[in-house]
Amino acid sequence: MTTAGNEARVQLDAHTRQIVEWHFNPETGCPFWLEFAAKAGWDPRKEVQCFEDLKKFPPFQDEWLRGGPVRKWAPKGFAGKPMFIFETGGTTGIPKSRLAFEDFRVDYEMFSDTLPERYFPRGANWLMLGPSGPRRLRLAVEHLCQHRGGICFCVDLDPRWVVKLIRQGLMEQMELYKSHVIEQAVTLLGAGHEIRCMFTTPKLLEALAEALEARGSSIRQVGITGIFAGGTEFTPQYTRFATEELLGEGVYLTPTYGNTLMGLACSKPVTAEDGYKIAYYAPQPRAVIEVVKFDNCDQVVGYGETGRVRLTTLTQETFIPGFLERDEGERERPIEKFAWDGISGVRPFRQFASSTTVGVY
Amino acid sequence: MLNLPILRWGQPYTSLEQDSVVHFLTGKTLAKVSQANTGLLGRDMRMASRARDVLAEIPIPELIEIMKKAGDLYLNGTLRMGDGEQSPEDFARQQSASTGLPEHMCAGNMKKNHFVLHHMDQILDCLTRGLNLDILTRGYGMESRGVVVSYQTQSPVLGLVLPSNSPGVHTLWLPVIPMQVGLLLKPGPQEPWTPYRMAAAFTEAGIPKEAIAIYPGGGDMGAEVVRRAGRSMIFGGTATVERYKGDPRVQVHGPGFSKILLGDDVVDQWEKYIDIMADSVYLNSGRGCINCSGVWASRHTKEIAQALAERLGPIEAKPPEDPTAALAAFTIPGSAKAIWNSIAGKLDETGVTHMTAPFGPRLVERERCGYLRPTVIHCDSPAAGLANTEFMYPYVSVVECPQEQMLGKIGPTLVCSAVTHDAQWTRQLIDARHIDRLNIGPLPTIKLDWLQPHEGNIVEFLFRPRAFQTLDIAV
């Protein structure tokens, strides 16, 4: 391990101790984890001294996040502060919820530091061409824009309706809905709002480029210079296609990987020379991505090997140890900018892939 | 090993994503096929009209001659294939190795495609009912009987979502290019061979490369082809048929549920027809939608089933290179077992008898593939769960059913060979709209007359007849 790697590890271990201390301290912890500790028969505050010790927790069950009362996740240390509730998916049954205070702002301010100023100029207005409704992403992108001094314009987009249409085979309706969303974006982009940056998804980026071209314009011509995008469909081939054929010179695209539970993992700069390979690095120590064996989630795979994504969230607002995501990918080595493991080739976990419905994002 | 690129209206494009086509017995990689993302197709559809434009510059009679040359190249030539070459022997071996079809059947299918390409003039003459083919180019013209007619193309290209497991279906799209309509092909993942070889033969014979596009990919790419093309032909299972049913832009080819019906006037001489029954069930490995999956009669059904079982039951799984191999392998791991389990689960039903049981197990599992040996089931009524089913191997249900109830019970039937001289019943058969291809008399269901339309006339699918009047232009 390099010096930087060692330092990152030391920092992660110290951060783990602080977070466990916070969540399992009766003065600051949330009811869920305090009750857990009361029944567990062991004291996390004593027994967790480093990140590896988190293996003492059973795998985090996402079912625990479904349903209320959501205040069970509210740390006593934040009593009285305004709370947000963010939801995932929600196309079938009760959605998973994450209670939040400031995390989404902190995560996106950290992400903001990775954006190149040339393409994401300070003060620029943004377009949020992504999901509206009870989404962390919706508020997070707006905050990112505000943090950088801009104003964020948004569209109405209900991704649950899109998934329903797809599952019912109503593809024509789905296309109409997509057109409705894209029309909102095209209208905003042509309304003199000086929008320079945007968040979007691979499918919507494609549709937007096509719609603009049909009107004799392009993403570049309407003034967009920086695109922050997310979604598991971000393959190297898609990124190459977008770079070479949708965007052209002068438009910067940065893929990201994230969700309501983790926050946001940045990619290292994607280049043609590197085969448009996309490797993501979690915002450690606030979140840790591990690529683990399919049959043993406590064992990390070798570098370059394929495994399932295991996510650990370590913030004062949220403690989620060892959550097995519905994605898989290849373990990547640390790089200069991120002195910890990354992941590439992220795609739906093979066991769930056939049942995963990818909507517009 | 070949590297096969995406063909973007003739322009090769190597994707960063590759799919390996592997030998079903050895696991050896036969080809790496570039996988297209849907956006590529979206961009390239801007150039689709050019496909028709470049073809329309070549008179149809000339295109027909090019088809003949292409047929010869396809059957006998060594052609450029991605970054390598492919001889006819390579083709049959590779197609067999990835689809599981015996090599001699792959070679046999090549001859069918060659036949269609070589008889394109007759086929188009029949499908257009003798239309002067220049009318397809000009869009209007005078028929021989002195009437102005107009045919308007409905799409500059035909999208094709092709299957992995039925190399015999390619004859259906061969008449498209000579009608000056471009091809937008999405190959089946295990069967890239025919689309690429045909494209190579076409272009080498003189078809402009801008007229043909090939976009390999997953299910999302198939859906994108259908979404983007004005007219598409898609091959799939019952779910695919249901999804696109009623969509005038889409011609769906699904399971055939093809049948032989024995009339009451001939059923007592059933032994005379046992050869056509057996051939209809198992020739070409029983994999096609035109293979017979049901024999229906009002009596003697147990004897018919017994005779078919004795004929088909002993057939063994043999290696693909064996010239006597009659069965195709199921190359997707676990698929043969899954199919057999779905049949076995219904064998206990009252009135259902597995007639091939005495001839040994039907499921044969190998290390990397599986086979299903011919299976004959007797059903004493159409109500049985296995009475109207189809599987992609030589499987047949022999169903006892009164003649007067047959047409009401057989359900959608792609090919119906009705053996009868009963004029009244023949009339009813002719009028039955759930029968597509109708053979009256002892004809195997698999005997196709290439001069007749299959599951809809491709000319009517691609061209719309409409009114057209002009005072100024000579017609």
Describe this structure in words.
The complex is a heterodimer of chains A (361) and B (475). Chain A is of the alpha/beta class and 361 residues long. Chain A has one domain: ANL, N-terminal domain (Rossmann fold, 3-Layer(aba) Sandwich). Helix content of chain A is 32%, strand content 22%. Chain A contains 10 helices and 13 strands. In chain A, helix 7 packs across helix 8 and helix 8 runs parallel beside helix 9. The longest helix of chain A has 22 residues. The C terminus of chain A is likely disordered. In chain B, the strands form 7 sheets. Chain B has a 7-stranded mixed beta sheet, sandwiched between helices. In chain B, strands 12-11-10-13-14 form a 5-stranded parallel beta sheet, sandwiched between helices. Chain B has a 3-stranded mixed beta sheet with strand order 1-5-4. The mean pLDDT of chain B is 94. Chain B has 475 residues and is α/β, with parallel strands linked by helices. Classes of the chains: A alpha/beta (361), B alpha/beta (475). Chains A and B meet through helix 9 of A and helix 1 of B.
